[in-house]
Specification:
This is gamma-glutamyl-gamma-aminobutyrate hydrolase. The protein has eight helices and 13 strands. The chain is an alpha/beta fold. The structure holds the ligand N[C@@H](CCC(=O)NCCCC(=O)O)C(=O)O.
Length: 253
């Protein structure tokens, strides 16, 4: 395929200070997953605190909402104020929350990962446990930060996959193994979200949007991590890619 036929896939950025200056950054693994595991090319969407969705959505064939060490500010889900040292990125919240809703309503294929998955839940009126490990009854969902990154993003637990959903269609089996690199998790599920996978402790780990006009899947784990080495992760990106490619063929350029 010539480059002209590639799908253009937006990838959401985060804010971070580097030295004396504020930067917009995206983990390279998200960009590589788009470049290597889809028939698309990544285009970074900056987290400037707003996003002209009417300008950019007609130009995009899909959007990947990335994970991030930062947590969504709890006022977005009527949660209790977080502890003083909590890492937030209000400009990312102000960019991605409205953009996610607008993208889904416009029928843009969406894959939302980890923080992105939590954003999808919040956009649809859901809420989050801010510290899953303090709730009780959940397995450990955090990475061990004292270990090498390969260990942190290595397989952590199984998920049970609901029949008849996007994930089951993509993978064709009722269970899979996933990594786990998160402190927060779904408390109240958003309205109109269809659970697609559960952790062994019952935590919702994937969902889709019942009334979405196009592919709209959120996953709590990180399928972008070494995506081509993991058949399950690859199947998720393949399904997302197919949806983006279909839109790319229809979209007037
Ligand atoms: N901060 C949230 C979301 C966790 C998350 O997205 N982790 C990713 C870390 C960096 C990366 O791999 O991009 C939580 O802790 O639940």
């Amino acid at each position: 395929m010539s480059d002209a036929g590639l799908a253009v896939i937006g990838v959401t950025a985060c804010n971070q200070e580097l030295g004396l200056h504020p930067f917009n950054i995206v983990g390279e693994k998200y960009l590589l997953a788009i470049a290597d595991a889809t028939k698309g090319w990544p285009l970074v969407i900056p987290a400037l605190g707003h996003c002209p969705s009417e300008l950019i959505l007609p130009r995009l064939d899909g959007i990947l909402f990335t994970g991030s060490p930062s947590n969504i500010e709890p006022h977005h889900f009527q949660g209790e104020a977080s502890e003083a040292d909590t890492h937030h990125d209000p400009k990312r919240d102000a960019t991605t929350l409205p953009l996610l809703k607008a993208a889904i309503e416009a029928g843009i294929p969406v894959l939302a990962i980890c923080r992105g998955f939590q954003e999808m839940n919040v956009v649809y009126g859901g809420s989050l446990h801010q510290k899953l490990h303090q709730v009780g009854g959940f397995i450990e969902h955090r990475e061990d930060k004292s270990t090498a990154v390969e260990v942190q993003y290595g397989i952590s637990h199984e998920v049970q996959i609901e029949p008849g959903g996007l994930l089951h269609d993509a993978w064709g089996r009722s269970s899979a193994e996933v990594n786990s690199v998160h402190t927060q998790g779904v408390d109240r599920l958003g309205v109109g979200l269809r659970p697609e996978a559960y952790a062994p402790d019952g935590l919702v780990e994937a969902f889709s949007i019942k009334e979405a006009k196009n592919f709209a899947l959120g996953v709590q784990w990180h399928p972008e991590w070494k995506v081509l080495n993991n058949a399950f992760y690859t199947s998720i990106f393949n399904a997302f890619s197919d949806a983006c490619e279909r839109r790319a063929k229809r979209r007037v350029r």
